[in-house]
Amino acid sequence: MIALFTDFGLHGPYTGQMKAVLHQMAPGIPIIDLFADAPVGNPKASAYLLAAYAAWFSVRTVFLCVVDPGVGGTRPSIFIESDSRWYIGPGNGLFELIQRRARETRSWDIDWKPKHLSASFHGRDLFAPVAAMLTCGDPPPASHDTMAQIVGQTGRMTSAKSFTSITTAMP
Fold it and tell me: Residue 147's Cα: distance from chain center in Å?
């Protein structure tokens, strides 16, 4: 399942364009509209909503999250795994509470770039394809560890070794 969490609003083509990419790359996968009206351009405030509602979704849910006032800027594009749920989006604080509250979390920068990457719509061109890849159990091409620490229930930290090692657990 893919859950969409954005600040795109309820009008306009943006959510529909992301869904079109998801349906093309991950046909038959259910898509849930969690939020289309997260606090506009405010990833820190949106982080509270995401953390409050994500726990209601089953493990292995993929959250495609776009609240990205810095699109096209220097912020990293990331995907994380926290308590067996996946989150894809900008590395701008949107996932901070998810990671802080998780028993176990890993994070990677997205190195892969599609053939066409709009300067202003990474949700459609970058994040949606990566969400589809994760949902289908495929590792995103050319991803690598960054910030990659696994914090287990013991509080012990170790480096994540590779994306491949964790995708084997996905059905």
Answer: 15
